[in-house]
Design brief:
two-stranded antiparallel sheet; 2 strands
């Protein structure tokens, strides 16, 4: 321990920290610690307390600056690891936002199921061959020419049935949106 020249009190790392706290806080703010500056000072104090009873470093203020710098780097590295881990998790889980499920809620699921049933009913109400032509083209992905061959119809007739189905679904959608 060294003696403080002013009042013959032994100088400790704690006393240097307390004496130069404002300078240390300014250092952290200039180094970009931002809102974490006070937390870093608290963490440094806990580290200093753990060193109590050990010999005072040759340059105690330099030691404290280095300690704070290392704590700040550790915190930044931890934040970067955490962000990387979160990003990797989001990539693995299908880019879901953290803590938020991609699955729709039960209410949305019920509404969607009702809409699907209503659409199926509207398509079925079109009758044959319009319902079959629509399903083959829009659901099965079969091109119009192939549907025309399968049904023994001309392409223009297939197009007419598809326009009728589209008009019916558009009317259903407008009615739903207005309700």
């Amino acid at each position: 321990m060294r003696m403080n020249a002013k009042n013959a009190v032994p100088e400790t790392l704690e006393s240097v920290f307390l004496r130069d706290r404002v300078r240390l806080l300014t250092f952290l703010n200039r180094a970009g610690a931002g809102d974490e500056a006070e937390d870093l000072l608290q963490e440094a104090w806990l580290r200093i307390e753990a060193l109590r009873g050990r010999e005072l470093p040759e340059q105690p203020l330099s030691y404290l600056y280095r300690l704070l710098h290392n704590l700040m780097l550790d915190r930044r590295r931890g934040a970067m690891r955490s962000a990387r881990r979160d990003t990797e998790w989001a990539d693995i889980s299908g880019n879901a936002a953290l803590g938020i499920s991609d699955d729709p809620g039960s209410e949305r699921r019920m509404i969607a199921e009702e809409e699907v049933r209503a659409i199926h009913a509207a398509v079925e109400a079109l009758g044959e061959p319009t319902a079959t032509i629509f399903r083959r083209h829009r659901i099965d992905g079969v091109v119009q020419r192939r549907i025309a061959e399968e049904q023994g119809l001309g392409i223009s007739t297939v197009e007419k049935h598809l326009r009728r189905a589209y008009a019916t679904l558009l009317a259903w959608r407008r009615a739903r949106d207005e309700a």
